[in-house]
Amino acid sequence: MYIFSAGTFLSFAMVGIFQRSLRLRTSLRQLSFHGSTSSTDTLSSLVLRGRLFPISSPSVFFSTHRTLQAPNDGPKSLSDTPPPRRPFSRVTEEDLTFFRTLLPGRTITDPDLLESSNVDWLKSVRGSSEVLLRPQTTEEVSQILRYCNSHNLAVNPQGGNTGLVGGSVPVYDEIVLSTALMNNILHFNDVSGILTCQSGCILENLSLYLEERGHIMPLDLGAKGSCQIGGNVATNAGGLRLLRYGSLHGTVLGLEVVLADGRVLDCLSTLRKDNTGYDLKQLFIGSEGTLGVITAVSILCPQKPKSVNVVFLGCETFEQLLKTFQLSKRMLGEILSAYEFLDSECLNLLKTHLKLQNPVSDCPFYIVIETQGSDPNHDEEKLHNFLEEAMASSLVVDGTVATEEGKIKALWSMRERITEALTHDGFTYKYDISLPVERIYQLVTDMRRHLGDRAKSVVGYGHVGDGNLHLNITSPAKNAALLAAIEPFVYEWTAKFQGSISAEHGLGLKKRNYIHYKDLLQPEKHPRNNCSIQEKDRLKVSVCDGGFSLRADDLCVQVHQPARHRRRHGQALRRLDGDPLQVVVQRAVLVVVGDQPQLGAGVTRSHVRRHELWEESKRRRVS
Amino acid sequence: MSGRVLVGVKRVIDYAVKIRVKPDNSGVVTDGVKHSMNPFCEIAVEEAVKLKEKKLIKEVVAVSCGPQQSQETIRTALAMGADRGIHVEVTGKDYDTLGPLQVSKILAALAKKEEAQLVILGKQAIDDDCNQTGQMTAALLDWPQGTFASEVSLENDKVKVVREIDGGLETIKISTPAVLTADLRLNTPRYATLPNIMKAKKKKIANVKPADLGVDLTSRLEVLRVDEPPQRQAGMKVETVDDLVVKLKDAGKV
């Protein structure tokens, strides 16, 4: 299936299209699965090939046909086997000289200093990078990537290195590109609440900066002391405030991204509303560093609430927990800002390893509710009414309220420090699953039953308000048999209920092979659902002379812009030498399903005709 | 021991809040700032409630001196397990100059009036750090005092108190009635749970004026000026020892 986009301009030279498409087609053939570097300067492929999406691994190669075969490794888990090393060059002295000239004092090759960049936060994966680069400006990042692209060197962008799926550290000897020194706040507009900063700013620092100016960041995570905003955007981090402020797809207004060949894509708009052209930045949000290195972010920040209250409640059953959720939405309404849950096993872990006491009496489930508002009296009244109702209708067995900052922090730590407690309990197997909200805890109970005595603890906690479960299993030491018992089971279970195997943690290294589980069991149900895994799997951004194109084996979106139709709006693709390339507004999309072009909005017969001519010429070229 | 315990609770600026000095340097900004119960007073309330749970005393009475908002602090104490509250209304100028001397006079009067066996207070308030109220109250009542208590046990008519002092821990035995002040390690205050918060709404808080107790609130102290502590200067990093010596010489330190 191809999606061929045509512009609205009528005097589009057809020859122009064919020439460009010819070049594109050629490059598509060049970019085979074993990934040769495209060396044509008219068409550079911007594949930031790290260790994601191992196309060369046959067991997980999905061809164009619809039926998805299960990995032929059978029950053995795939997340342990790393992808094979692609034929990238190794770093030479010459390369190091270049880096040292470009970044004096910020090119690190000392193995001790590299240690922290080679190992992830969970200490579960280790890379063997020999070079760590710490640029301070976008220009430096651009030059590094241009150099690496032309010398076939693999690059691993790294932010705070707090990711939980092994995606932030190198698999082999990729050069680590750290944004740690790009920590300047560029601008804050306190009327609109829009903050512009470099991507290496630590989330907590941004929060403190904003709090002094009466605003807060729209996201909040347990890792806020170390995670960087660039990484948050690249992984589309969720966090504790998603329920209230939405995901980064909504709150990020602009990005500055350096593409793999060094070109800088400047979408760093600070406009709240801008419907001119494709919203390119959305591709990079959640792309996990595969499409470009984010160097600057502009984000919309909400007002700092004058009144914050946290409630810690105890429930007897999960159904009551869900009913309490409905009640809280109804009675707390717009002041509800977080609804999290944890089970009694989590609390036991907190007691045992972190010596935190239970604020209420022991119950099977606990809820943490946070409200944020602009009027303390208004919020307290609503909260008291809600709590009275919850207690009176026996939805909630026990609870406590905190209005003071110290107590609020103490109650939040019951939820935020579970990850820490788990690391003390032993080797942790982490799963971040999105499910229909009624089914969330069923996975935990089924997993407990399935594993029996083999696991030390099986706990469930998470953002139940967003339908997101964090399922964690611990064992005294890393145990392959246990992993084999857990892994296909948890993903099949998730697929059975049309859940997502990675709600907010991303795929990284550990879950890259499980992306297909979304459609695994019910492909017949969605015959028209062609925008599924394969496309995401192999989506790469290519930049060509006339515009840019998103390319995957089955999905091809092309944007063409002849010279005379340059427009003021639209995103600018800045070449390294400063020559701006305008991308035109796309309004017509010709969807071709199989061989039949479908007329969509704005598509005319002439587009169809043009497409037919292109197909014709393609056939003639092949024959 | 059948008895009544009087617990003093003070409404102070929450310890997590960043304090700002008023532009005219007359005091700190208190309007619109989050207030809560003094942490040491929480420990005192917790200790009193624990004694009641052990059936060693009969009733816990929470007392606070201040404006209308002090009633919230008393409610928190009630939610933690106190039986009833007494709000001594002090407002306006009197409240601004209210200090340990005045409060201890009020507490002494109340202790006599309520016939309390024990008066438990926090060792100090986090806003003024005076550490005087407990001692003054004991002196006015001529009662023994067990201050900086990190452990309290009641034995018949006596109270055994383990005090935290500079040299270590001192254990003393004092007879009742007595005044105790709570130190940090006495206990961990409980969270006020919902059922108790609901019950607290129904408990009584009596309203009393200082004049009714025959207390004179005039202060013998006058606050002249309040200043912020000097800003901490950023440090400097030097590459070598020679650089350090040069910098020290420049600064005139060497």
TrEMBL record, chain A:
Cellular component annotations (GO), alphabetically ordered: mitochondrion
Gene Ontology molecular functions: (R)-2-hydroxyglutarate dehydrogenase activity; FAD binding
Record Pfam families: FAD-oxidase_C, FAD_binding_4
InterPro entries attached to this UniProt entry: FAD-bd_oxidored_4_C, FAD-bd_PCMH, FAD-bd_PCMH-like_sf, FAD-bd_PCMH_sub1, FAD-bd_PCMH_sub2, FAD-linked_Oxase-like_C, FAD-oxidored/transferase_4, Oxid_FAD_bind_N
EC identifiers of the protein: 1.1.99.39
GO biological process, one term: carboxylic acid metabolic process
Highest taxon of the lineage: Eukaryota
Cofactor: FAD
SUPFAM superfamilies in the record: FAD-binding/transporter-associated domain-like, FAD-linked oxidases, C-terminal domain
Catalytic activity reported: (R)-malate + A = oxaloacetate + AH2
Record key words, sorted: FAD, Flavoprotein, Oxidoreductase
Signal sequence coordinates: none
Record-annotated FAD-binding PCMH-type domain positions: 124-304
Region called Disordered, residue ranges: 66-90
Family: Belongs to the FAD-binding oxidoreductase/transferase type 4 family.
Function: Catalyzes the oxidation of D-2-hydroxyglutarate (D-2-HG) to alpha-ketoglutarate. Also catalyzes the oxidation of other D-2-hydroxyacids, such as D-malate (D-MAL) and D-lactate (D-LAC). Exhibits high activities towards D-2-HG and D-MAL but a very weak activity towards D-LAC.
Protein name as catalogued: D-2-hydroxyglutarate dehydrogenase, mitochondrial
Organism of origin: Oryzias melastigma
Automatic annotation (TrEMBL), chain B:
Record note on quaternary structure: Heterodimer composed of ETFA and ETFB. Identified in a complex that contains ETFA, ETFB and ETFRF1. Interacts with ACADM. Heterodimer of an alpha and a beta subunit.
Principal location listed in the UniProt entry: mitochondrion
Short name of one Pfam family: ETF
InterPro entries: ET-Flavoprotein_bsu_CS (IPR000049), ETF_a/b_N (IPR014730), ETF_b (IPR012255), ETF_beta_N (IPR033948), Rossmann-like_a/b/a_fold (IPR014729)
Keywords: Electron transport, Mitochondrion, Transport
Family membership: Belongs to the ETF beta-subunit/FixA family.
Domain Electron transfer flavoprotein alpha/beta-subunit N-terminal: 25-217
GO biological process annotation, one example: fatty acid beta-oxidation using acyl-CoA dehydrogenase
Protein name in UniProt: Electron transfer flavoprotein subunit beta
Keyword Repeat among UniProt keywords: no
Domain of life: Eukaryota
A GO molecular-function annotation: electron transfer activity
UniProt subcellular location: Mitochondrion matrix
Transferase as UniProt keyword: no
Function summary: Heterodimeric electron transfer flavoprotein that accepts electrons from several mitochondrial dehydrogenases, including acyl-CoA dehydrogenases, glutaryl-CoA and sarcosine dehydrogenase. It transfers the electrons to the main mitochondrial respiratory chain via ETF-ubiquinone oxidoreductase. Required for normal mitochondrial fatty acid oxidation and normal amino acid metabolism. ETFB binds an AMP molecule that probably has a purely structural role.
GO cellular component: electron transfer flavoprotein complex; mitochondrial matrix
